[in-house]
Automatic annotation (TrEMBL):
It comes from Beauveria bassiana (White muscardine disease fungus). Residues 687-783 form the Integral membrane bound transporter domain. GO terms for cellular component: membrane. Residues 23-50, 631-642 have a biased composition (Polar residues). Keywords: Membrane, Transmembrane, Transmembrane helix. Residues 1-72, 410-437, 611-642 are annotated as: Disordered. This is Uncharacterized protein.
Amino acid sequence: MPGLSSQYQDDIGKRHSGPGPGATSTGQLSPVSLSSLDQHYGSRDSSSASPIKPQRPGFRGGTPGLGSRTSSTTSLLKLNHLLPKKEDHGTDTYGVREVRDGFFDAVFLKAPRLPSKDGLEALKATLPAAFDQHNPLTIKHFLPNQWRKLKSVVHRVFTTQTGITLLKPFVAYFIAYVLCLVPVVRHWLGPQYYIMAVSVILNHPARTVGAQVDGVVLTVLGTAIGIAWGALALLLSTSTLAARAGYGGILALFLVVFVASIASIRAFFVRFYQAVLTAGIAVIYATLSETHNATIPWSKLRGYAVAFLFGQAIALAVNVLICPDAGARPLATTLHQSFDLMLQALEAPHARDARLRRQLSKSFVDLSEAYRDMAIDSTISRFRPEDVLELRNLMQAVLRALLSMDTETTLLGRPDDGEANNGEEKQQGGDNGQNGHVKDVAEALATPTRDLLLSMCEGIRTCDIALMGISGYRKSTGPSTDFSSDTAVSKTRLGQTISHFDSVESLLLQSGRLPDSAIHDFEIVQLFVSARHVRETAATVQHLLHHVSEMQTVPERPRLWLPSYPFSKSVYRTNAQIRHDRGGVVAGSYQITFGDIARILDKITSRVHEPTGRTQTDAAGDTNLKPETSAPRTGSDGTRSKSSTATRYKIWRGLYRLQGYESKYALKACLVTCLLAVPSYLEQSKWWWDQYQAWWAVAMSWVVMHPRVGGNLQDLLNRSCLAVLGAVWAGAGYAAGDGNPYVMAVFAGVYMLPMLYRYALSTHPRSGLVGSLSFTVVSLGLLEAEHREAATTTPAVLAARQGLVFFVGTAAPILVNWVLWPFVARHELRSALSSMLFFMSVTYRSTVATYVYFDAPPTPTDIRRSELLEGRLREGFVRIRQLLVLTRHELRLRGGGGGTDHHDPRCWAALTEACERFFEHTIAVRQAALFYDAGCLRASPAAAERLLPHRRDAVATVLANLYVLAGALRARRRVPRYLPSAAAARKALLVRSDEVEAELTAQEAAEAEAEAGAGEGAGLREVNTRRKWSDTYRFSYNQSLTGCIVQLEEMEKYTKLIVGEQGFDDQFSI
């Protein structure tokens, strides 16, 4: 059961349990009236109910007039807590039945009171872990934070694998840099010798062997294409006298066309990032360097290509020779971390840990990325890609089950002596009624449930050990060699524990020790549901153990596995190091994740509603109303209407796609590169353009500009400072030894070691790239300046002016991004939450239509599609919280005028938390509906007809509220003060469902008595057992649907805090 339910149950155990030791029960069932609980909890305006730790009533027994279904009664109590007291919600119709076709009846009640300042303080628990640290923009904590980070980096470099990862790019770069210092090498490579060191930086060897080979192919291909396009532009611009007259215009046209093309590819297809990056640098060099020559210097193109190839050869050799990573280590690390989180989640009992659940969701996402990284590049491993795919699915099934398991139940803890004595005193005091049944069930289920937990922990640890042994990284990654990797023993022990649990569970249900009324008791049903969730988790661990034991039979020798990820998907994905090097990981991942969710939900299309027709014979009445024609139905077979395949639809879709960020990025890239390249086409500026290699300003603007993230003020300061620092350090190194290569090599080693760490391993890769390129080009360019005619320019002045070139090239794209379509994390967060609320509405509608009110039961394909959507939505919540962390790095120059605090991160985090809990309740509804048999209602057309208006009201009210909240967030408009009450609609449905089911149950009882007289007792016992399980899952089903209503109320509050509340007279206020 979700954690919210357990919090309510724990609270009611303190308020409405027995009076204490020695108290005497008044009967087998001790019902508590709804009115008394309403008086106890007061109105919904009470400030005692915290939005994070809601106090919910627990209940044992039934309520007269509502039947003995405690699941419905408990849900009603939760709804009464949300509804105002002493107010009629239209539940009593006095026998008048309303027949509606299409529209729903909305009930508007008193608006809830928004949380006070004390309530906002309680919302801190919903913030991500990054908010525990000091604000990065505060000057007071800047230096202490930098000191702590420096000590952490030094510790990681000298004690973990990070040191080896840093050593590889440094060795490759230092080799290339030293070769550039040798005069013979410089003379042989030509004036473009420093491109060899630049080539190493662009495709550094701090990556797996497969990714390195892939990078070599892509960078060489991109450089060849860029040089070829530049050569073509040079040929055409000098082919005729007329062309020479428009020399600059032709080159500019070729540059615009090429930059626009590769910028679009860079934004659309992430896979080709390295190719388009090097292609852009190559074409900029070909068309913008050495522009003062009247003839085409073909030697510069040849020298550039040769130097670039030598740089790639050095990087590849270092990657293969120094501690090569064949691709299995990242996968093994991710698997080991996921198993550790599973073991941590199985520690029982423990309260609902929100951050642990977020880590489990993040692990769910990391497993998908680990498999994708393995399949997208070549790897050498004992893991077969198809085995890893199945392993990923099984591990995600375990994580899914752990997220659904209730760890707050008393079944998972061992009672101490004091609690045992208190239990004996209660039993001696005469509490032998329903409380005695609760105690009997708890004692019977506690031991096998705890045994299941222990067996699951052992099985998960064994899987971890076995997989680390297969990968070959058990000594460096873990676990300890003291544990055995024999999966057969763990699998046998877990199977025996499951069998013992099943036998105890069946004995409780079939032995007759529990009366029929006991299965409707709140505490008893809660115990069964909690134990059943543990049993389902054990089943997923059992399947995982079986697959890992099969993986242990693979050959011991590693094999080369070529890329196996589908090409149609791989063009939008790339490996982990490229995701890191290009920067903007959060923004890029968020865009891809939400695009995947939208594509999956696009297949779930609502069927066209056809109003019910009437015949002439019943024109005076509505007796021919067919529920099946008005029931909400959802088609998820992926079929589309004819209009979606029409030519005009494709044209519209293409034009609409051109309005996306990809086209905007291409426009900005063309604008920046062309404006910075203007001096190269003017005669009066060509001399200083070539002397100071100003074409690097254009190249740096192309390198730094990101398709999604433009950069904030902090990025501008960091990158600009490092661009200037690289030039200053290069000038200092040259001046210290007057160009002595040994001194320059020492300066390079001191500077480039932290800079390569920042580029290849830190969270700020683009600033590290800027600093590395600035130092390399300026320092090696000073050596070439010795042989130029411009000897009057001192090295200090030359270094300063080249540093200015890098500063302009770094700052220009950031400033342009601030003006044209800037990336603002707060705005993206608002859009993401709005989209997620809309996704929740579609998910809720699909779940209800597929698993609750369906014509045909869900198929295995429907279940697999739902699990796929669940994984994507979990990843969506991970991306939303990452966006929330990004907002800490943005300055807020003005406050919002909407809610209490327009940019208060607590409100955004609380809204995300409420939305995620709504999603978890929806998952619980789906899982419980697979086992809950409501055949008595589905088999009766009359019952379905009577419940149809109320079902429609309950579902439509939830959807309407979600649509309103999503629209308010996206349009930045205030939320109406009064929204349709989902709680009232849900209560009306529960009351009517209990009335209808009570009538049908009475009919079944009469038929059962007749069949019992005919001698069918054994069959009735089997049916009764199956009905008991149906009632057990009905509890979880109803509790989860009611939990959705509770979280919907919370989402309404937090959305109003963010965008404000719209009243009736706001338009007249001044």
